[in-house]
Design a protein that fits this description.
Layout lengths: L8 E5 L3 H13 L5 E6 L16 H7 L4 H7 L3 E3 L1 E5 L7 E5 L12 H10 L11 H7 L20 E3 L2 H14 L3 E4 L2 E6 L6 E6 L4 E3 L2 E4 L6 H6 L4 E3 L8 E7 L9 E6 L2 E7 L4 E7 L6 H11 L9 E4 L3 E3 L3 E2 L2 E3 L5 E2 L7 H14 L8 H27 L7 H8 L4 H13 L12 H10 L19 H17 L4 H8 L4
Parallel strand pairs: 1-2, 1-11, 2-7, 4-14, 11-20
Antiparallel strand pairs: 3-6, 4-5, 8-9, 9-10, 12-18, 13-16, 13-17, 14-15, 15-16, 18-21, 19-20
The structure holds flavin-adenine dinucleotide.
Amino acid sequence: MSTKDQINNIVIVGGGSAGWMTAAMLSKQLESNINITLVESDNIGTVGVGEATIPPIKTFNRLLGIDENDFLKHCNGSIKLGISFENWPEKNHQYFHPFGRFAVDFDYIPFSYFWNKHRAAGDQKPLQEYASAWHLAKNNKFSLPSNDKKSLFSGFDYAYHFDAGLYANYLRRYSEKLGVKRQEGKITQVNTHAKNGFISSVTLANGKNVTGDFFIDCSGGSALLLGKTLGVKFIDWSNNLLCNRAIAVQTSHVKPISPYTRSIANTSGWQWRIPLQTRMGNGSVHSSEFIDEQTAMDDLISAIDGEVLSEPRVINFNVGRREKFWHKNCVAIGLSAGFLEPLESTSLHLIQRAIMRLISHFPNKHCDEINAKQFNNLTTVEYEHIRDFIILHYKATQRDDSEFWRYCQHMAIPDSLQHQIELFSSHGHLNVDSSDLFKQDNWLAVLTGQNIFPESVAPIMAYKQKINLPKTMDSFHYVMTETVKKLPSHDEYLKQHCLFQ
Ligand SMILES: Cc1cc2nc3c(=O)[nH]c(=O)nc-3n(C[C@H](O)[C@H](O)[C@H](O)COP(=O)(O)OP(=O)(O)OC[C@H]3O[C@@H](n4cnc5c(N)ncnc54)[C@H](O)[C@@H]3O)c2cc1C
């Protein structure tokens, strides 16, 4: 490639989590001959939520060379071992979606087949009782996974809860050290080349022009570049994912800091509890079609513990994705690309994936269509996979105590999800691809948590008679229960390694 074709100037529009995560990773990965400018407007601000994550965030931070304890210290971070779903399939019901695996697979057979056989023989223990992440979570304990591959505590995983604003600031300091230039100002106009429609520059309210070869739209839900300027349409998924409004409020802690997120279903959606080191993040996610704002606010305030520390903030959102994520010389990353409600904390992950995919498909100035198409195809598959997983929580409810839940129970769902449910319901098999975010154990946690069980034991189990199943399952449970007693509390872990400064 001749150097005249090489991209030399990248403009990132937006300084929320998406903007600064992109700036940090690009400044680290594109080592030389590149200028990166990030434009953001303090007056517009950021969405300011996005406090719960999933395990791959660790890889993202590691690739940046960030020290875990330093990051937790500066971002008010705590540990997340999974999500406790309360009142989802029915009222007064709880299940846990743990990070990492359930017990161990043996003889190349998934652990769940053994569990299902044991269950069919009368064992009453829910699947989560065989997850070390759950044993840690329910006892408010934490210690890093064991390096001994034979230990049942080597297979759990974890992510973080943190303050999204502090994370953006942390990455801003990181990026600026590596040469990223921050440009404060509101963009009032986006300019395109007459010849090919590529974006050429953005004009700020003070008249200044910021030019570039390649533009990354991290402008949030407004999708200023990809949507408003290049006209890429939004595909709406609200027929299956009804929630379109959130109310967020912060409170003080009244209990030990739990190492997991809580998701508590109510009549028209659900509420989150996200524990940071010095405060609790609380929120209501609901559908404006089924509940008015004031009632949702009252429900939230009456349900939370602790002293209210912030004014409740209302956030309206649309669920769905852009028809394309990359068009001409512009890629959308973050809320500008799409949004799947925060139930499984997947948004920051989608940002991380888009950044890494952009790096592996990094273009020259011509931005070949075939390259963009590949990027778009891969991203579409990723969005649809996560969409299905989230819909499952709503569809597989037995609640019929409100119009909202009755709609969810009876709604038509994508064929791909219907197939997954039917496949699992028959013998406990699952359709999972190695590139999927949610793997065998994630689907298992939610399917069985929502009271969907295989009608019969996997046929292969008829040939697996050597193992003494009751003894093996009891020993797994015993070892998990006993090991956890010896581990430090989550509070102690934070205090010792990464106390918020
Ligand atoms: C209720 C709710 C809860 C969520 N919870 C989670 C969670 O637990 N976990 C998770 O992973 N994700 C969560 N998310 C998603 C997460 O918050 C976002 O994915 C993430 O914050 C990225 O946002 P963003 O950077 O794309 O957009 P924003 O934060 O909105 O940033 C947009 C940026 O663009 C700039 N901008 C816009 N227009 C202009 C203009 N004209 N000129 C100059 N600058 C401009 C703004 O100033 C800002 O800097 C949640 C989202 C919502 C709505």
